[in-house]
Amino acid sequence: MAVKDLAGVFVAANRAFRRAADLADDRVTALTNTDLFDDEAARTLTVSEQLAVLAGHPVACDVKVSWTGRVRTWRAVCTPWRDDNRWQGVLVTGTLAARSDDAGRRLETLATSVGELAHKFNNALTTVVGLTDWHLVAGEPEPALRTDLEKIRDAASAAERTAREIQQLTRGAAEGLVMQPSAATAAVETAAQPLHGAPGAACVLVVDDQADVRSSLSVMLRTLGYDVRAVGSGTAALDCLQRERVALVLSDLAMPGMDGLELAARLDALESTVPLILLSGWTGSQGVPPLPPGVTRMIGKPIRMAQLREAVSALVPPRA
Length: 320
Prior knowledge:
Layout: E1 2-5, E2 10-13, H1 15-20, H2 33-36, H3 39-55, E3 59-65, E4 72-83, E5 86-96, H4 103-138, H5 143-173, E6 203-207, H6 211-223, E7 227-231, H7 234-243, E8 248-252, H8 260-269, E9 276-280, E10 297-300, H9 305-313
Parallel strand pairs: 6-7, 6-8, 8-9, 9-10
Antiparallel strand pairs: 1-2, 1-5, 3-4, 4-5
C-alpha cells in the first residue's frame, strides 16, 4: 500500500510495498511512478490514478513489474481520498499476480472503468437535457433565452453522441468482456404482503442515487401530469412501495447497494404488478439486451422529455 499526493508523488508506503519495490525507508518520499516502473507501466498507473480522482471512485489497473527478479503483473487499485472536503491524493493498493500474461483482465478492467465513467457522465447529461427540455417546453422562455437553451441542448446531444462512441469503441476492444445487464441472482426475501399496483393512480416512484437526476426527472414528470415520489436507493423504493400506492417505478440501473436489476428481481418475487422502467447510461451499438423478469422497458440516458412522456404514458395515464 502507498499514498500519493495529487501531483503523483509518493508520500508514504507500508513495509510490504517497500519490500516488494526494494525501497529503503529514506527513499519512499519524493518518488513518482517513473522512478519505480518502466514507461508503459508508469503511464498506465498514472492514468488510472487520474481517472480515480476524476470519477471519484476506485479504478483498477494491471501493470507489469520485475521487482522479484521476473516479470509479474501487479494488480493495483487506485482509490481517491479527500480531507477537509477536498481531494488530497490517491491510495494505491495491490497484489502481485501469479503470472504476467493477463491481457484479458486488463481489457475487462478498462471496459469496466470506462462504463462507470460513462454512467456518471450520462447522469450529468440527464440533468442538463432534462431541465433544458423542461424550460423549452413548459417555461415559455423569451426568444433570446430560447435560442441559448436550444444551443445548450444541441451541445448536450453532441456530448451524448461522443459518450456513445467511446462506449462502442470500448465494446469493440473488449468484446465479450464488458459486463452486460443480466438477470439478478441475489437471494430474494419474501415479504408478508405482495406489492400490487394502484389502478388509476398517476404516482411515479423515481429511484436514483444521484440527487440532481432525481430532481430533474421529478420536475419533468410533474410537468407531464404525474405525482412523484423520489428516493435514493432500491431499499428505500421497497419501503415506499409498502407504504404508498404507486403506479410506476422509474429506476436507475447502476446504483450502489441494491441496483435496478436486484430491485426488479425483488419486485418480481413479491408478485408486484407495478411496472418498472430501467434507465441505463450504457447502451452502445449492441442494443438493449433481453429484459429480465420484472422489467417492462429499458431506456438509455439521457432521456428527453418527449421520450419520457411516451414511455410513461404508455403504462400510466397522467392526471386529467
